[in-house]
Design brief:
With 250 residues, the chain is α/β, with parallel strands linked by helices. It has 12 helices and 8 strands.
């Protein structure tokens, strides 16, 4: 057996754009969505209901349909990071990484020695893979969220940390940290966000951000190559359009 390839990691390594969707909480829904060209599923364990007990079945569904599974956790804790990886996730998303030291902590929890300090445990991704511990690091994606103005101020140092695949600039929390709660389209916030994306590119690293139908072209033009889309905005816009088309019916 060979280890399952990480589609997000390989897409980014080849210079492509990795499209990831969030909002799924049941394996059946992952199966239904799988015919699309999205590379990965973002499972929400910070603001959503996903926890370690559910990660096994959700990531198993991703494995079956050939999509890469990422789990956003709720704290930068090494034990939590590798527990979720041990449950079958192919990648981790860590919120509020504000310093170089905090970024290094993500790597230490998410990578096996000699790179990191991940506990030596054979996850489902390693079953019947004889050289798993030698190659697992190459198929594990680590995403850190740059979502506070302090992180933007420390970005040059954070970008020196190796083995992080995506530096994700999150506009909502960034806006709040800049004193513009709920106003992530504020010109100062948008300038800060796109300046951060440019700095990430200039350092030779991969930038990511949250996208929807309205801003995705602008984000691609800015250079972001990891595009995260919450399904809620699609459902809301689709429902609104349906109601508009049916407003004169009974």
């Amino acid at each position: 057996m060979k280890i399952r390839p990480n589609r997000i990691k390989h897409t980014l390594a080849e210079g492509g754009i990795a499209k990831v969707i969030s909002g799924f909480t049941h394996p059946d829904d992952i199966e239904v969505f799988s015919p699309t060209e999205f590379k990965g599923i973002w499972l929400e364990g910070e603001h959503g209901p996903v926890d370690a007990a559910e990660v096994g079945n959700l990531t198993r569904a991703c494995d079956i349909v050939g999509m890469t599974s990422l789990v956003r956790i709720n704290m930068n804790d090494q034990g939590l990071i590798y527990r979720i990886l041990d449950r079958g996730a192919q990648g981790i998303v860590v919120p509020h990484v504000n310093t170089k030291e905090e970024a290094q902590n993500v790597v230490d929890g998410g990578k096996f020695a000699p790179i990191g300090k991940r506990g030596m445990f054979l996850s489902r991704q390693g079953l019947r893979v004889p050289n798993y511990f030698d190659i697992a690091n190459d198929e594990t994606v680590l995403v850190i969220l740059i979502e506070d103005i302090i992180a933007v101020n420390n970005l040059d140092e954070i970008l020196t940390v190796d083995n992080i695949d995506v530096f994700f600039v999150a506009p909502s929390d960034l806006a709040a940290s800049m004193g513009h709660i709920g106003d992530y389209n504020n010109p100062k916030v948008k300038k800060t966000m796109f300046d951060a994306i440019a700095r990430i590119q200039d350092a030779g690293r991969v930038a990511g951000t949250i996208t929807n139908n309205e801003n995705v072209e602008e984000c691609i033009e800015s250079g972001a190559r990891f595009l995260y889309s919450p399904m809620g905005s699609w459902i809301a816009s689709g429902a609104a359009e349906y109601l508009r088309l049916t407003k004169n019916t009974r």
